[in-house]
Design goal:
about 550 residues, alpha/beta, six-stranded mixed sheet, elongated, binds guanosine-5'-triphosphate, binds magnesium ion
């Protein structure tokens, strides 16, 4: 642990100057730093230089004197967790300046009692017999065993999800469930979800000191170096937490942006997502510069870190500027294509709705296309448009769109604005809902809210409950009545006839006030079925 000579010296000098003295000791016994505190406390310096990877012990132990021989304090244990020290030791000092009892604690690997650390019974410093190297090696092995069991379960990126808020528990749980889905869609393996209801969210570190330590230990125990917050963090919180913990920190928005960046395939989509990401990042870079300039301010001049961040910031701005230009260019091309299409003067039906509602599945069924369908959030990013050909009536144009989600990130909304703006031309929005979700109501509301935010609230809408096959028929019926909607299953072509009839009706209604488009041939509901030959007319089933 420490040589008798050094222990004696520490005790002697401490007694003489009446201050705590501490040493940071490396694995093989090298003294890395000597720190002098005051009578009751001692402050550890920045240890990031000794970084050993986020889920390993630091390779540094801290031994310091306690003048009254008092046991380890809460701060001592906090340091142990936050800094992931190999061990923390307080060394008592007697009246004559000789070392007395040593109190020590170390972190624990994952355990059933969910304990973060173990405090050992005090021993007389002179009698402490510990082969430190051997002991620390076996402790690290234990840590690794715990981490490996998780690693075997899933080789993906691992993360712990956290929600800290004042809101009601059910609400937090529901939101957490969705965050878990988002993480899964992003290819992240969720090790644990922590929900913490608080009276006040800390403006700096979101959660309290104690909770932060607990979280850190948990991360280390399970070999996780990524934490994802369900709430969006301010630039300050984001930097504070990642600085304090050395963990990678994401918030809800960044997670969604990350999914989007994985999914974007078209040039336009890619540019839009990168723009949103850069715009979200920019204030966070700026923040870091601020903190640094305060640090370097004391010794005058600009620190090297600051200069680099200035450059980063300028680069980001340049890139944003470039991308915006590029986007304009790409969009012009699409504009022209669209102009040609609208000239055809056909009714445009846009399928919108919460993510994973089954929009693309329905789109494929309607237009016999093969756009990507996946049981993941935000499978669709790039809107697809096809003509729905019919033998006996006018064709329709059908559009599949990117899904909505509660708290759709602002920057994303702005970046995707033109895509959403195209929805303005829709003659009818088919608002598709996953009726099997326990959160039907919340999802419908979220979509309605976003439609209003996007100035699309005035467009005629048809509420369609999808995935009826996953729910008991009487429940489906009740929901249909409640929302005045029709129910379908995009996996069952026979439910299309019902949908077609409803669409025609709505288009017919919308036509009356002002002739937005020509609908001469639209009122042939039975003929429609013939267009999809062999599909039975399910009028007998009765509609709400
Ligand atoms: N049981 C059942 N599953 C469905 C139905 N419609 C879609 N699904 C499934 O729901 C999942 C999501 O379908 P998508 O069509 O990708 O949903 P989306 O609304 O386009 O989702 P995003 O593009 O991610 O916003 C897929 O696994 C589909 O197979 C349905 O009527 N019944
Ligand atoms: Mg889709």
């Amino acid at each position: 642990m420490i040589t008798v000579e050094i222990a004696r010296l520490l005790a002697e000098v401490s007694r003489e100057i009446r201050r705590q003295i501490g040493v940071l000791v490396g694995r093989r016994g090298s003294i890395e730093r000597v720190i002098v505190g005051d009578q009751k406390s001692i402050v550890l310096p920045d240890l990031s230089r000794y970084r050993t990877g986020a889920f390993r012990l630091r390779g540094i132990r801290f031994i310091h004197t306690h003048l009254q021989g008092e046991p380890l304090t809460q701060e001592d244990l906090g340091d142990l967790a936050l800094l992931r020290l190999d061990m923390i030791v307080s060394l008592g000092v007697d009246e004559e300046g000789y070392p007395g009892y040593a109190h020590s604690a170390h972190l624990l690997p994952e355990n059933r009692e969910r304990k973060a650390w173990e405090i050992s019974p005090p021993v007389l410093a002179g009698q402490w017999d510990l082969d430190f190297l051997k002991w620390i090696q076996s402790l690290e092995d234990e840590f690794q065993r715990g981490q490996r069991s998780i690693a075997l379960e899933d080789p993906n990126e691992k993360a712990i999800l956290i929600s800290v808020s004042r809101e009601k528990r059910e609400q937090l749980e529901e939101s957490m469930e969705e965050l878990r889905e988002l993480a899964r869609s992003d290819g992240v393996y969720v090790v644990d979800c922590i929900i913490q209801r608080v009276k006040q969210v800390s403006p700096t570190t979101v959660m309290g000191e104690g909770k932060l330590q607990e979280l850190l230990v948990k991360c280390m125990q399970s070999g996780v170096d990524l934490i994802i917050f369900d709430q969006n963090l301010t630039p300050g919180q984001l930097t504070a937490i990642s600085d304090r913990t050395e963990l990678r920190v994401l918030d809800r928005t960044q997670l969604i942006l990350d999914i989007f960046s994985q999914r974007a395939h078209t040039l336009e989509g890619k540019i839009q997502v990168e723009l949103a990401q850069l715009k979200y990042m920019l204030p966070r870079l700026a923040r870091k510069t601020l903190a640094l300039s305060r640090l370097t301010g004391g010794i005058g001049g600009r620190g090297p870190g600051e200069t680099k961040l200035e450059i980063d910031r300028r680069r980001v701005r340049d890139r944003i500027h470039f991308l915006e230009k590029e986007l304009e260019r790409v969009r012009k091309g699409r504009e022209q294509r669209r102009a040609r299409r609208t000239k055809a003067d056909l009714p445009i039906l846009s399928i919108i709705g919460y993510t994973n509602a089954g929009k693309s599945t329905l789109f494929n069924l309607l237009t016999r296309s093969q756009v990507l369908v996946e049981d993941k959030l935000f499978a669709t990013l790039d809107p697809a448009t096809r003509r729905l050909k019919a033998a006996t009536r006018q064709d329709w144009i059908v559009t599949d769109t990117v899904g909505f989600i509660k708290d759709l990130p602002r920057d994303l909304m702005v970046a995707f604005r033109p895509t959403f703006d195209e929805l303005q031309e829709s003659n009818l929005l088919i608002h598709l809902v996953d009726v099997s979700s326990p959160y039907v109501e919340e999802q419908i509301e979220a979509v309605e809210r976003i439609l209003n935010d996007l100035n699309l609230g005035h467009l005629p809408r048809l509420l369609v409950l999808n995935k009826e096959d996953k729910l008991a028929p009487d429940k489906v019926k009740a929901l249909c009545r409640k929302y005045q909607a029709i129910a379908i299953s995009s996996l069952r072509p026979e439910s299309l006839a019902r949908l077609f009839r409803a669409i025609e009706e709505r288009l017919g209604e919308e036509k009356r006030p002002g002739p937005l488009f020509h609908l001469e041939k639209l009122n042939h509901s039975t003929a429609l079925n013939r267009a999809f030959q062999g599909e039975e007319d399910d009028a007998a089933q009765g509609e709400p």
